[in-house]
Design brief:
Elements (H helix, E strand, L loop, with lengths): L1 E5 L2 E8 L3 E4 L2 E10 L2 E6 L2 E9 L4 E6 L2 E9 H10 L9 E4 L4 E6 L6 E2 L4 E7 L2 E6 L4 E6 L6 E2 L4 E6 L3
Antiparallel strand pairs: 1-2, 1-8, 2-3, 3-4, 4-5, 5-6, 6-7, 7-8, 9-16, 10-12, 10-15, 11-14, 12-13, 14-16
Length: about 170
Amino acid sequence: MTTASVLNKTFRLSTVERHTATIDGMTHAIRIEKKNGLTELMIDGKLYKGFVKKKSETQFDVWIKHYCFEVTVEDFRTGLLQRFSASEDKAGVATVVRAPMPGLVTAIEVSVGEEVRVGKGLMILEAMKMENELRAMVGGRIKSIEVVHNSTVEKGQPLLVIEPIR
């Protein structure tokens, strides 16, 4: 059995065939294609376009619209090895919000120490004359802001860190 973890939620992938995948016991029609540097993922007829960056054999950054998801994929053996060798509790790990594209930070809508909920606007990133609002994908407290107003950022650059509230 293989699992995929996104935003502290784990999905069981028990069967993956050419055009179908069984996720948490439900079978879905899937299609994955790479076109012009984009990855297109179609699940049950709904199309998702984004960028995928491989960080390691099991970790990927997936950008869809203005959101970056850190995805961890592991098979049963890898999962066992990580559980037995883990020395820290991963539930309390902070989330790093990264720039989904190069651009200019035109507004920072939060401050250090502020509590945020999922969907809260964090900052505005201008790219190709379009303003893109980056929103929180996790709730928590702003631990640090790594950029300043009117700074230029590169794709994948850390913008801020959200830590879980204990």
